[in-house]
Amino acid sequence: MARALEGREAASMERRRRRIVGAATELLAERGVEGLSADDVAARAEVSRRTVFNYFHSTEELLIAVGTEMLGDVIDSLTVGDGPAPTGGSAHEALLDDVVTMLRSIDLLGAMIRLTLVLGPMGHQDTRVLAIVRDTVFSVSENLMATARHRHPDVPPLDVELLVSSLLGGLMVLQKHWTERAGLEDSPQTRRLWSELFDRLVLQVRAGFLALG
């Protein structure tokens, strides 16, 4: 019975947390970052202000949770990780090809568009928001790193982290340039632009990363 009670309490806490994050997401879409307050989130989620801060110690931490959920759902949808790892060439080359294939398999651009609409176009944000975007991307990178390490045990863990960090950091740069040129328009033309920018990133990362192997 005690375990059942603990399970129900954990489930209740998770539902409450999701309600808070959902309320914050709605308010961000309506008012932007500067219009977000713990009081309004609490009212929208139908919890107390104290409850909000029981789950999130600051509004910045809550914003990271919103971003992590947006990008995390996409990263969690990785399907290539269930198939066999590529073979042939060096271990580093196989890892690079695998991670690139995984990133191509998900709608990362769509998630970044939604995140940008919530937080504001990159390059036009204050330093606080840029830090939130950075921490959000870092938080979801753990999933990709874990998958890559599991599938490529012959590659040193440091090299795995260097590759994933380089690609995800580069994607933030690409998002800034893509936004400036595409204006957040989601169309076949702008997605082709994103693909071209991504190819350029991979080309640059490949040259340096394969030298490690």
Structure description:
The chain has helices at 2-31, 38-45, 49-55, 59-76, 91-104, 108-119, 127-151, 157-182, 188-209. The chain has 2 domains: 2-57, Homeodomain-like (Arc Repressor Mutant, subunit A, Orthogonal Bundle), CATH 1.10.10.60; 66-212, Tetracycline Repressor, domain 2 (Orthogonal Bundle). The longest helix is centred in the first third of the chain and has 30 residues, at 2-31. The model has no long low-confidence stretch (mean pLDDT 82). The N and C termini lie far apart (54 Å). With 213 residues, the chain is an all-alpha fold.
In sequence order, what are the helices and strands, one letter per element?
Answer: HHHHHHHHH
Ranges with pLDDT <50 over ≥5 residues?
none
Mean pLDDT: 82
CA radius of gyration is 19 Å
Number of strands: 0
Shape: globular
CATH architecture of the largest domain: Orthogonal Bundle
Q: Please give the alpha-carbon distance between the first and last residues.
A: 54 Å
